Amino acid sequence: MDDLDLSPLKDRLRLLQPKGRSGLLPALHTAQDLYGYIPEFAAEEIARTLRVPLADVYGVIDFYALFLKQPAARTVIHVCADPACAMAGADGVMKRFSQSVASKNTAEGSLPELVVERAPCLGLCEHAPAVLVQGRGATASSAQSYQDLVKGKPEHPRSVIGRSINLLTANCGKGRPTTLEEYRQSGGYQALEKALSMRPGEIITMVKASGLVGRGGAAFPTGMKWEAAANAPGEIRYLVCNADEAEPGTFKDRVMMEEDPHRLLEGMIIAAYAVGAQKAYLYIRGEYLYPYEVMSRAIDEAAAAGWIGETIHGSDFRFEIEIRRGAGAYICGEETALFESIEGKRGFPRLKPPFPTTAGLFGRPTVINNVETLCNVPLILNLGAEEYRKIGTEKSPGPKLFCLSGDVARPGLYEVPFGIPLRVLLEELAGGVRGQRPLQAILFGGAAGVFTTEKDLDVRLSFEDLRAVGLPLGSGVITVFDDTRDMRDICYRLARFFAEESCGKCYPCQIGTQRQEEILHRINRSQPQSEDWDRLQDIGWTMSDASICGLGQTAASAVLSAMRLWPHLFKPSV
Amino acid sequence: MPEDIHLKINGQAVSAPAGSTILKAASSVGVEIPTICYHDYCTSNGLCRICVVEVSGARTLTPACVAKVNEGMEIQTDSPRVRRARKTILEMLAASVDLSDAPDIQAMLVEYQAQPDRYPDAQTRSPEVIQDNPMYIRDYAKCILCWRCVQVCAEDAQFTYAINFSGRGYRTQIGTFFNRPIPETTCVFCGQCIGVCPTGALKPKKQWLMEQGQTTDEIMRLTRSQRRAKTKKTTQPAPEGGAA
After folding, report:
1. Cα angle for residues B211, B212, B214 (degrees, 5° grid)
2. Single pTM value for the model
């Protein structure tokens, strides 16, 4: 340990020092980048520099899955084992890689050459089975051994875009980011120019009139959120973009950031101008290294062109964007847990009220919007509220991105107007069930979602139509399961996901996710106990009804829906 | 004087000062709502959810220890929905940790007809007792993660910041920086954490030794030898089992 040099860390910490505790996650990332893990002496140096108690620093390191307390290996491969990847053979990949690694890691006492670890959904579901090789996304579909992935630089898998309209994804599908120049040529930043000629209140009125609701899962009216924050007392306001996309089956925000970063930036700048925020944070999940790099470059480009900075195109509006990287915690997608994370704390969700629009990040009025939501904003400015409302249905206006994965012929990102029937999306656009097998189930809304069957294939994809049949639109995740899939295995994986991702703050979720996983584990091994049905029901309803935040409140949602659809799977055979 | 808020608790008309919690408003008319993590002198976090009540119009149950009263609120503190949540939480908790030193929680198990053995094959949290200082022991097999010790060690009382959390989810535990022994932390041995611990997870060392069956004489002999060992420490390392 003594041979590790502290001076490069000290140099970089100097830049973070003014941020105080809020600089903790960036500082820990810095240390890990330098040393491959976070050595104790580095953690002490960070604590001293940022003036954070030692015990708190450790509490933060140990909360986030991507922070390592010991050296791991020269190369780390993360293999996703959540449903879409599991169905594409992730367990086999894990086994093959681990076996070939075992023969490689022979030298005792020295750092192993390679470590293969199971990971939660990596947001690469259309490339299942997905892996991260040293943080870089790749598909393991054709890899026989890990050598196929580590030799050379793995190619970033190219996004698959399908659509019936191309309003949000017009610049997507090139397999590389759209440059500022290209974005300008396609009419980019005109919406911002228009916005800067308007009064902030007029923009809020327009967004309210557009009927835009949040695309992150909660479907809260965006204009109302902006208005509440704009009217909240105080001079300092924040805009936060939630790019902590981690719901199993979701990858839309990743594709938008990778392929069209300036659309998001334009949406953020307009939103900040409208609500009176001088600073924005873009919080990107830790596993999204490439999107982080793309967004960093795009921010530099936009700043050089005067779209971000001290004066924005001659106006007296001044604005900066800071990117924050998460570090492996699904809970940080919950908005108040995300604030805690930016503030340098464990990602515990806060009690509400107070709500973010009055007391959010650093206790200030804050607007927090999802990536896709903000990508709609330039479109609304360009089209005007009335034209925008012509897309979609009356109660669900606008375009919507859907993430299709699992047993579907063409997994990928699909842009459609709200209101098209599920059957059209699944069968006409995505080619139906892979191999034309019979459809067994569809999971709507990811791990926190609800299962259904072909009975709902004719439902129209809008908030109101889905609500009527009891399905959540969530963030637009549709996972498809053919007739060969064992739904007990899928339920067990979802339960394991929540048990690993629960923050541990409130008892119903902290203990309920664990008990739920244990019971589903034995059900998956065909060893259900006669009382397990009632136990799962009590756990599920208690988590849904008594947990603090959305994670706990939905941690049993899919399992409870599976119990309604296939009760026999959860009971001992007679 | 804050103005009064008018609400109904279990059908009974209640008025309470604005800003009161549901817990206090209910208590003022003799309706007792059970609590576990709540402590009068600690910041309330609404963790244990034993105090949840049913508020008309609310989508989910509401934690009475932190939720404020509102004009016209209608609250049920003992409905079947509430009882189901409390019973389930108690049963899951009993399957997780050793509640033998938590008589209040044991009484709640009886009150809610909770079966402590409802989850027979559950993985318990049962780490070894940590004896790393002469003043107190830490038996996290009894820890219910109420957060009180962490809070009194920080802004709720002492501003010492010796302890925080490790792990997350079900694997959360109270701990120190890289699990250092207590004497190597900022702990000032104020004892406040022991005072607020509701389950005997934190205990004075002497009390714990007596519970292990040691007599006061034996404990005196032990501490005397430990003190001797400590004075010699400058020249030679303390014997195994030593105090520091």
Report:
1. 95
2. 0.96
